[in-house]
Amino acid sequence: xxxxxxxxxxxxxxxxxxxxxxxxxxxxxxxxxxxxxxxxxxxxxxxxxxxxxxxxxxxxxxxxxxxxxxxxxxxxxxxxxxxxxxxxxxxxxxxxxxxxxxxxxxxxxxxxxxxxxxxxxxxxxxxxxxxxxxxxxxxxxxxxxxxxxxxxxxxxxxxxxxxxxxxxxxxxxxxxxxxxxxxxxxxxxxxxxxxxxxxxxxxxxxxxxxxxxxxxxxxxxxxxxxxxxxxxxxxxxxxxxxxxxxxxxxxxxxxxxxxxxxxxxxxxxxxxxxxxxxxxxxxxxxxx
Length: 288
What we know:
Blueprint: E1 2-3, E2 9-13, E3 20-24, E4 32-38, E5 41-48, E6 51-56, E7 59-64, E8 68-72, E9 78-82, E10 99-102, E11 113-117, E12 123-127, E13 133-137, E14 149-155, E15 162-167, E16 172-177, E17 182-186, E18 194-200, E19 203-208, E20 212-216, E21 222-227, E22 241-243, E23 246-248, E24 260-265, E25 271-275, E26 281-285
């Protein structure tokens, strides 16, 4: 399941048959999708940043709408929405959620909800399961304020869960306790544009928007999992192709990442990627 490249729709793909079905939503852009199970039913937390690039003729114009953080059922119907926190930052900045992660809860209920406002005020917010805003993080405890906290992940590998934040423009991963206390920052030469995070067994995967996947081991040591050797990032119009003042979808090569954005994994260890460009690209990576 992934977001349609044109926005507004969810796409469900049957891998065995190759057939797809789409579900309409009232959202502008499904920037990230987080599936959880509540009361035995699968629901989806969706971060809608409220901005969608739309190819129009020779240009690539942007459509703007208010950002939203919502929970939907598998029919695309909204069953819960988080309100923009009543903070002074939102008198100056818009609300542009880019990622949502949910703490494990008790019994059949999910726990607290975390929202990264990567395209708005560059804050990370914590809400209770009923949508009440509890507190926010701006990164200053680390010595540097967040700048595009794009992706977040509740890491429950250990009894003491932690919050991992992909602070993209600052080229780092920042780790907080779920009580909101700063713990550490992770930096590495491989971090060029850390964007989204996913658990992969005992490790964590990170998409680098400029064309790579990085893996963190249990001790937060970073290494390259997939690294593009192509110099596509310097291409005019990246992630697309601009030629003769016209913006087009570029030619994509098998085995070379262009602009990896979203990431998820399966219990079998397969990796699923979406790439950000005109028309999008969905990839399944099975490491052997």
